[in-house]
Amino acid sequence: MTLSQQNAQRCGMIPEDNPPEFVAKHLSPYEFALPYVRGKRVLEIGFGDGFGMKHLSGAAREVVGIDIAPDNIPLARAKYPQENLKFIRFDGIHFPFEDASFEAVISCQVIEHIPVANLLSWLREIARVLSPEGIFIVSTLNLERAMKPDNPYEKSRDHEMEFTPRDLENLLKKVFPRCALYGLHYRLHHRLFRRFKKWGLGRRLPGPINFVKAHFDRVSVADFKITGRNLHKAVDLIAVGRA
Question: What CATH number is given to the structural domain containing 174?
């Protein structure tokens, strides 16, 4: 959610509008977060249609979401009516909560939309609403992987800043000194299917025996792994920060 999108009516990833691989990639940080949020009061910053909050709702005591897009609120409320979910619109800068209101804060694919001049104040606002031993989980694309020598790359026009692992760690440690960095990777079997698809097998094989298409039709979070190794090769970055 960008601060420049304050007039947008709706923004964020809608699962039913996207292929399973794309959805699973975006859902993976929430799966990773489940052990961290169990039994806790959680804040999500930039919830889109609320799919991630729904994923957390089975583990967390309560999940509160804030988003700047006005139509995201009724959309999320209609799709996910669980009693422990709450969806709130906010101005994108000042969080409408008292100090130490949450035990965990999560924000996925949002930090790259925050204007650079506001990044530190945004992180400090997150630290403010966290309890003393609270955790902050953030995900974003991995610029180091995106900028391959043989793959011309242009920053998304919707992104204010994109991060290499070092960039993200250096920024977060200014507010969250205890910071651990992880990377989202394709599992081996899924990498093989991605190679098959690149070779065109997903188009050339007849429908009934098209095992490549069948695989991509059912991609899930099980086809991804999150590890602290080989961060330069990670599809996305995930950080866990503590004050």
Answer: 3.40.50.150
